[in-house]
Design brief:
The complex is a heterodimer of chains A (712) and B (452). Helices cover 65% and strands 3% of the residues of chain A. Chain A has 712 residues and is an all-alpha fold. Chain A is elongated, with a radius of gyration of 37 Å. Chain B is mainly alpha-helical and 452 residues long. In chain B, helix 2 runs antiparallel to helix 3 (43-53), helix 14 (241-261) runs antiparallel to helix 17 (338-356) and helix 17 (338-356) packs parallel to helix 19. The longest helix of chain B has 35 residues, at 265-299. The chains are: A mainly alpha (712), B mainly alpha (452). The interface between A and B is large, with 37 and 46 residues.
């Protein structure tokens, strides 16, 4: 009783003095401690004074004493948990730094003991894991004992908590913190199967992390979103990202692909993979497994299966990484952390840049026509595939290099990804293994990867497959445009799919479907106010190289680039119908209208059309004066009516045909018609300065139904 | 050596002194080399030193030769470089002894004067070897002379030349041994009995900062000296602990004394200024005491050597009771109650911590004897009666300190057995009276228990 009172008295005196004369307060406590060395409160008071004054060394010493002498005091444990919390946090505030410094003053043995005991008292899996991790990081010798069990605990927690994505707090801790400790500890002996399992867990995490979509975080307003995209959800490179359960700082994973490569290197070395131990790049990795693949058929048993898994893992990682790099250029907005402002989406389509100039291009397209005729009798996929494979070899992909500065890396990645994909499907054994990985990672649900696969199929010329994939994706994406953003991204995304579909339909000879899709797109666009200046690159390319007509192009998904492409594709659809022996004035008229675009690229074809009109002796196209404003063309048509031009009968005014029929007996009326034509021509010449894009855009919108109906 | 006198006589004072130093150096080198034990300077040589360096009158007939101030300065410079250049420690020490060991004759006066000037100069120009020799001198010499030397230095550095304090501050790093002895001497000199015997503020600040920077400084002589038990009674204490303790305990009353003598602003301000300094110094003293058990155990002296003497504590308590009486007479108002209580608190703390750490070897009964005349103070009563034995703090586990502490990497806190067992003392063989029985008398009020 009395002793307790003594102690209370001593502590109270110290407490009363501490603010005015801290030295005196400490003198009291030192005295008190010599009187009652077993009293906890005296020592705690001493500790509190030092802690509040943030004197690291003396506070550390007193904490140590308390830890040793009063190991069962709840207050000591509360204090220790505050300190370990500071160790786990990445806060830089002064007090947290002090607490961390305090911990550092303790001898290693005590640190170890403290962490272990603190871990035991933790009930939250994540906290417990973080605590144990502190221990493992500080005391590498403890990795052998606790490393794998900690890893398994985290994986179990992930499984039992039903997390939606591999990018979760448990996996992050496992992959980024625990796994390197386990892998790099030379005293650990793990079975190869376990290491491969862990590595796949790591790969799934890193890929998931890199390809994570922009978070729809309402708090962060995209105030500085530039360019044409006004959507607040469009990712800025710097948008913050937090893994649920972790702090912002620990949610950051630096250089994920490099980290993954590190793990592959360690696992490779430990599983005694074939070939060079130090795999320093993904490209090397692909080269190595390609080589390895050649020996695969000659191997048997264990060696074979080990070799198989090496090939599949390496090729799969190269595939996903290259596909990601390709997609991050082509569809940057899909990913967070990829700078979306640099460029919008790009579309892989058939190239039509030489459609106006190349007279021989029908040859390529002619094939389609023939095949299209055969299609009438229930065409199956197989012939499509056959042809696709034939076409798939060595196709060129054109891209405007100034608009896509990373063009070479993008195309190279696309190529590497396709190569890896092919490798993975070059052998039944490999394919089965790869499909297992895909199934466990649910790659089917990776939108970005489907986009890559679709582009690959297009590249291979398997347009029918590509179309069905595009339809599926459209179905998946359907609800998105509305919710994602009111204007920009969603519709752009939608356009992208339509344009790609149109391109595929065209390649399959389905011109009407192609034009349907295109006109949907064009209707949603507003024509650029300025006519684009023709890029010299396009000129030279058209002139110098004769394309075979099966090149591809990466087209920027912007109104400025899409509209010309639509005109080109529409033109390509009509071109074949027009320049055949049969007469189709409507198509010929459309062709003339469309030939205005990119004038005088299509001069040769225009002359060819004129020839045809001359041969026919007459030409009827009532929309002529609505949509033809090209002065050269107007002159040519004016000339055609003259005796020198061959007195071609032109019915270019609306309802003119009716008038002629009606008044055919009266010469005067014919004269009146002539007068109308002259007046129309004169008026038309004054329209020459009109924005051609607006004219053609209006053409597409107003004549949509007629255009579609005039195609088979 | 005696035969050189004839050659020295015709020379002027400075060159004769120079010449003698030169010969002395050679003489002592030979002495050390010959290996004679103990190496001792003969009386003839002593006489030469007194005649040609100290210029003490040889007899009444011959008038003493005198040096001009300039010549004296030159001689000091020569001596400084002489000690600086001598690389052998033994030779330096013997040389210093030959010059400055007190002989109990007339020449001692001039010896002390010259020594004061030499040490003061060595401090000014940072001559470490001289400070080391002076530290040894302070250990050997009667405290009266030590105090005189200290007085000279304090005058030189704290009173005469304002702003020269920082120079003195450096001795702490130049020669910790000298610094420690200097503190001991200064605490012996200023016993806070009168205005003159309170340390200058500058000096106090210096000492506080020295000890705060490095508490072990206080123990450095104790740590470095092989204690052979034949520590001369008349010399300074081995540590300044006792002196510092006296300062801290008496300070609240001594500085308060200023007030009544001169009710000027400066003196009250001074009181306010020194308050925190003494508080910090007192804490430092307690912290140094806490270091002792490990050191004493290492030396095998725990419980065998008392760094604090009962006699000096007795004189402290009687001083204190006198001061308290005075304070009571002169200022009976309540607002001054705090200062006597502060003094008593500090005394109680110092006694308890000293005893608990083996610096003071006595029983609580002995303490009660020397504190009997002091007025009531709660803490002092608690200390005098000692802790309650059966300590039943519900939180604390069974105390098993020693095994932990034995492995403890932080060996700062001594281990305290729950029962303060005092080693048997030669002077007070039986000193455990009725206390062990005390806790059983639960209902009884104990006279020494603090009333709180």
């Amino acid at each position: 009783m009395s002793a307790q009172k003594d102690c209370e008295f001593l502590v109270k005196r110290a407490r009363d003095l501490v603010s005015d004369d801290p030295c005196a307060a400490k003198a009291w406590l030192i005295t008190a401690r010599t009187l009652y060395p077993a009293d906890f409160n005296i020592q705690y008071e001493m500790y509190i004074i030092e802690r509040n004054a943030e004197r690291t060394a003396s506070a550390g010493r007193l904490l140590y004493d308390m830890f040793i002498n009063f190991p069962d005091q709840p207050i000591v444990w509360r204090e220790i948990s505050v300190i370990t919390a500071a160790l786990r946090s990445d806060s830089q505030d002064k007090h947290a730094l002090f607490l961390r410094g305090l911990f550092e003053t303790l001898p290693g043995r005590v640190q170890c003991e403290m962490l272990l005991k603190a871990t035991e008292q933790c009930f939250n899996t994540l906290e417990k894991a973080e605590m144990l991790l502190l221990l493992l990081k500080r005391f590498p010798e403890s990795v052998v004992q606790h490393g794998v069990s900690l890893g398994e605990t985290l994986l179990e927690a992930e499984a039992s908590e039903n997390v939606e994505t591999p990018v979760n707090c448990f996996r992050k801790l496992f992959v980024c913190d625990v796994l390197p400790l386990i892998m790099n500890n030379m005293d650990m002996r793990l079975p190869a199967s376990l290491m491969q399992k862990y590595m796949l867990k790591a790969a799934e995490f890193y890929i998931g992390y890199v390809t994570r979509g922009p978070a729809a975080d309402v708090q962060i307003q995209g105030s500085q979103d530039g360019g044409s995209l006004k959507s607040p959800t469009v990712s800025r490179g710097s948008q913050r990202y937090v893994i649920d359960g972790l702090s912002e700082k620990s949610s950051v994973v630096a250089e994920p692909w490099e980290r993954l490569l590190d793990i592959v290197a360690v696992v490779g070395a430990r599983c005694e993979w074939q070939g060079d131990k130090g795999q320093r790049s993904y490209v090397d990795m692909l080269l190595r497994v390609k080589e390895l693949c050649r020996y695969l058929p000659s191997l048997e048993g264990d060696t074979r299966s080990r070799c198989c898994s090496q090939v599949v893992i390496c090729a799969a990682l190269v595939l996903f990484r290259s596909a990601f790099i390709y997609l991050s250029s082509v569809q940057p907005a899909l990913f967070q952390g990829v700078n979306a402002l640099s460029s919008g989406p790009w579309i892989l389509v058939e190239d039509f840049s030489s459609v106006y100039s190349d007279l021989e291009s029908e040859r390529g397209a002619g094939k389609h026509k023939k095949r299209k005729l055969a299609d009438g009798r229930e065409k199956t996929m197989s012939s499509d595939d056959e042809e696709g494979l034939g076409k798939g070899r060595g196709r060129h992909i054109l891209v405007n290099k100034t608009e896509m500065p990373s063009w070479s890396e993008t195309l190279e990645s696309f190529r590497t990804a396709r190569e890896s994909w092919d490798l993975l499907h070059s052998h039944d054994g490999l394919e089965t293994e790869f499909k297992k990985i895909c199934a466990s990672w649910k790659t089917d649900s990776w939108l970005w990867f489907r986009i890559f696969l679709t582009d690959t199929i297009i590249y291979q010329g398997q347009y029918r497959k590509a179309l069905s994939s595009l339809h599926q994706m459209a179905a998946v994406q359907q609800p998105q445009p509305g919710q994602q953003s009111p204007s920009g991204q969603g519709s752009l995304e939608h356009h992208r799919a339509l344009i790609q579909q149109a391109s595929c339909h065209y390649a399959l000879g389905e011109y009407r479907l192609a034009c349907e899709k295109l006109l949907d797109v064009v209707c949603g666009l507003t024509p650029p106010t300025q006519e684009p200046t023709k890029s010299p690159e396009d000129w030279s390319r058209g002139k110098t190289k004769t394309r075979k007509g099966n090149d591809l192009r990466l087209l920027p998904c912007t109104g400025k680039a899409v509209l010309p492409f639509c005109f080109q594709l529409m033109f390509a659809c009509f071109k074949l119908r027009t320049f055949t022996d049969s007469r189709d004035d409507l198509s010929l008229g459309h062709v003339v209208v469309l030939l205005q675009h990119d004038w005088p690229q299509g001069e040769m074809l225009f002359l060819k059309a004129v020839d045809k009109i001359c041969q026919q002796g007459s030409f009827q196209y009532e929309n002529f004066f609505n949509y033809v404003t090209n002065i050269d063309m107007l002159e040519e048509f004016a000339y055609l009516r003259t005796p020198e031009g061959g007195r071609i009968q032109l019915e270019l005014l609306p309802n003119q045909g009716m008038l002629i029929k009606h008044h055919t007996v009266t010469r005067g009326i014919t004269k009146g018609v002539k007068e109308d034509f002259r007046l129309a021509m004169e008026r038309q010449v004054s329209r020459c300065g009109e924005n051609l894009f607006s004219v053609l855009h209006r053409f597409c919108i107003n004549e949509k139904i007629m255009i579609i109906q005039s195609l088979p | 050596m005696g035969d050189i006198r004839q050659s020295l006589l015709p020379r002027d004072v400075l060159s004769a002194a120079k010449e003698l130093l030169y010969h002395l150096d050679i003489y002592i080198c030979n002495l050390v080399q010959s290996g004679r034990q103990p190496p001792q300077v003969d009386s003839k040589t002593q006489e030469l030193v007194e005649e040609f360096i100290l210029h003490a009158p040889k007899d009444r007939n011959t008038p003493a030769r005198r040096m001009s101030a300039l010549q004296e300065l030159q001689l000091l410079e020569i001596m400084c470089s002489c000690f600086q250049e001598q690389s052998r420690d033994t030779v330096r020490q013997l040389m210093f002894s030959a010059l400055f060991s007190l002989q109990g004759n007339q020449a001692d006066e001039s010896r002390m004067v010259l020594l004061g000037k030499l040490v003061s100069m060595a401090i000014a120009v940072g001559r470490v070897p001289i400070l080391e020799c002076a530290a040894s001198w302070l250990q050997r010499t009667h405290r009266v002379y030590c105090v005189r030397l200290a007085q000279v230095l304090v005058d030189d550095y704290c009173s005469l030349v304002p702003g020269s304090g920082p120079t003195l501050q450096n001795i702490h790093s130049a020669s910790p041994r000298f610094c420690c002895q200097f503190i001991t001497a200064v605490t012996t000199l200023y016993d806070l009995t009168t205005e003159e015997l309170t340390p200058p503020l500058e000096l106090l600040q210096m000492i506080v900062s020295w000890i705060q920077d490095d508490p072990r400084l206080v123990l450095i002589n104790f740590l470095n000296t092989p204690l052979s038990g034949n520590h001369p009674i008349s010399s300074l204490d081995v540590t300044p602990l006792g002196g510092l303790m006296r300062w801290c305990v008496k300070a609240p009353l001594a500085y308060k004394g200023d007030k009544k003598q001169a009710l000027t602003n400066s003196s009250t301000e001074r009181g306010r200024e020194v308050g925190p300094l003494f508080s910090a110094l007192h804490l430092s003293v307690l912290q140094v005491l806490m270091l002792l058990p490990n050191i004493l155990n290492e030396k095998g002296l725990y419980g065998r050597l008392a760094l604090l003497q009962m006699e000096s504590l007795a004189s402290l308590t009687s001083d204190l009771s006198r001061l308290l009486d005075q304070a009571d007479k002169h200022a009976p108002s309540t607002d001054t109650r705090a200062l006597p209580q502060l003094a008593l608190d500090r005394l109680a703390q110092a006694l308890q911590v000293s005893m608990a750490n083996g610096a003071l070897l006595c029983s609580r009964e002995d303490l009660r004897a020397i504190c009997s005349r002091l007025p009531h103070n709660n803490l002092l009563q608690l200390v005098l009666s000692g802790p309650v034995m059966y300590y039943n703090n519900i939180h604390s586990p069974a105390m098993a300190f020693s095994p932990h502490a034995a492995h403890s990497p932080i060996a700062s806190h001594p281990t305290h057995p729950p029962l303060p067992t005092h080693p048997p003392l030669p002077t007070h063989p039986s000193s455990h009276p009725q206390y062990p029985a005390q806790p059983f008398m639960t209902g009884m009020s104990f006279p020494f228990r603090p009333s709180h």
